[in-house]
Amino acid sequence: MGKFKIAIYPGTFDPVTNGHIDIIKRACKIFDKIIVAVADNKDKNTMFNLEKRVEMMKKATKNFKKIEVKSFNSLLVDFAKKENASIIIRGLRAVSDFEYELQMGYANKSLYSEIDTIYLMPNLKNAFISSSVVRSILKYKGNISHLVPKEIIGDLNVHSY
User: Domain range spanning residue 75?
Assistant: First the structure.
């Protein structure tokens, strides 16, 4: 097969959605190991703290043998170097995602020439799902069971405002 390929799939995953899991499934067909990198981004006002987001991602990916879940609070490219990863995986739901993701891909490449970014599209049935949509529905105690992995529904239903 050639060189052992480690990829990083970064995000805040606040919370993890079926769209994220869809991207992870697709990435598992391509890479030897995927580190799901849960970002500790102080600029984002997350619904769930870092530990809870890591815990939910571990629950949601427990049956994926190629997945390792870690948190990070540095530049993504510095984390990638530390983990010997050469690929960043990003999901694209719509054209509106593309410009931002392309800009970030170029910025990461300028910081670390050995890194490449691969963009994967979720299945059409998951294309509208985002963490912010899930958070909005949760805020009004709506049904999110079709939007998130079944393994974390209990974690979301106990969240109160």
Answer: 6-157
